[in-house]
Amino acid sequence: MDFVEAFDAVGSWMRTVLLNEWTFFQLALIVAGYVLCGLLARRIEPVVEARARTIKGNPDLLRVIIAFMRRLRWLFLIVWLWIADAMLLRFGWPSYRWLVATALTLAAAWFVISVLTRIIRNQTLARVVAVTGWTYFAAYAVGLDRVILTTLDGVAFNLGAVRLSLLLVLKAIILSFALIWLAVLVGNVSAHWIQRSADLTPSFKVLISKLVKIGLIGFAGVIALNATGVDLTALTIFSGAVGVGIGFGLQKVVSNFISGIIILLDKSIKPGDTITLGDTFGSVRDLRSRFVSVITRDGKEYLIPNEDFISQQVVNWSFSSDYVRIEINFGTSYDSDPHEVARIAIETAASIPRVASTYARPVCWMTGFGASSLDFKLRFWISDPSNGLTNIRGQVLMALWDAFKAAGISIPFPHREIIMKTPVEVTRA
């Protein structure tokens, strides 16, 4: 009898809820919305894609736009179902909208999760977000979310005057991660916009970008703590412990961070500068909060702590000007005309493309009478030291060799004089 009554109850529920005109009406609304939204998305997606392809130098923003663009059908469907749900709620009974409301929840869940898994680059993290999100939305769709939240909140213990529950810990972790990740994403997009500004110096661009990103991350952390109900005054002890930790164990980290800010403020080092620090010669590629990335001509990238740029002697080849003077020493035979040698050397150096002859014409001076040759010094300027110094010296020397050979001017070998003495025979009486 109990089985029969349960079967009759289920059949009555199906006839009342599922097999009625309002259920078929809701199903028709969902199907019609899916078809219409698909047609609308098919027309709008090419326009959005053409507009997105004009974005240059901002990959984070482009990735977000593409993630939304590929799912415009679901975005439009969410709007359609939201309007339909609002109309049914206003002009009908709540039971007349259960299918539309469920479809709206599932469509929104699918849209949010698919966009997040597209934006998040880490595949493992994307899968974790997808599984967690689908689990929660599935529980919400069937009405089990309150039971799960109540169960998680029941697992708790008191830490002094603070009650810590599993629900609070999970909310704090999820909100903090989501908001900080969003802050980093917005900070990266803002940094790309700032880098495109033509009115700011390179070092000031880096400084503003870092301050914006740090401010957004701090603001996101405060919002996450307030949203989870954590009293910020309870963090005073923690902040004191952090201060002690900084005083004992994080001196280098804080020193490099402050040194990085000083470098950006005084503009002594900026991206693109050619610098020499100790045995390292290369171009500054990036300025970070802890180190400076310097890439050398052989492809090695040195991550030099910011503190070294404050405490050690640094040669910045392009601090106030990009022009660098290079000297080359050479000698010719005593049979050559020194005036002609100087003229040929100047014209040869000026013919090299990398030599900035418009900035300052090359000069060549005779510096002495050597043991085997007339000694000369050739000086010229270049404007791109980041492209290398040894290679331009080699180009000029090769050009001098060809020019002197064509003019009949020889470069002598060192002369050595050898005196051989024969032994004197001693006669005996």
From TrEMBL:
Membrane topology recorded in Swiss-Prot or TrEMBL: Multi-pass membrane protein
Main location per the UniProt record: membrane
Localization annotation: Cell membrane
Coiled-coil region(s): none
Domain of life: Bacteria
Domain spans labelled Mechanosensitive ion channel MscS: 253-318
This protein's UniProt keywords: Cell membrane, Membrane, Transmembrane, Transmembrane helix
Domain Mechanosensitive ion channel MscS C-terminal intervals: 326-411
GO cellular component term of the entry, any: plasma membrane
Transmembrane segments: 22-41, 61-83, 95-113, 125-144, 164-186, 207-226
One example GO MF annotation: mechanosensitive monoatomic ion channel activity
SUPFAM superfamilies recorded: Mechanosensitive channel protein MscS (YggB), C-terminal domain, Mechanosensitive channel protein MscS (YggB), transmembrane region, Sm-like ribonucleoproteins
Pfam families: MS_channel_2nd, MS_channel_3rd
InterPro entries per UniProt: LSM_dom_sf (IPR010920), MS_channel_C (IPR049278), MscS-like_channel (IPR052702), MscS_beta-dom_sf (IPR023408), MscS_channel_2nd (IPR006685), MscS_channel_C_sf (IPR011066), MscS_channel_TM-2 (IPR011014)
Family classification: Belongs to the MscS (TC 1.A.23) family.
Name of the protein described by the UniProt record: Mechanosensitive ion channel protein
Species of provenance: Ensifer adhaerens
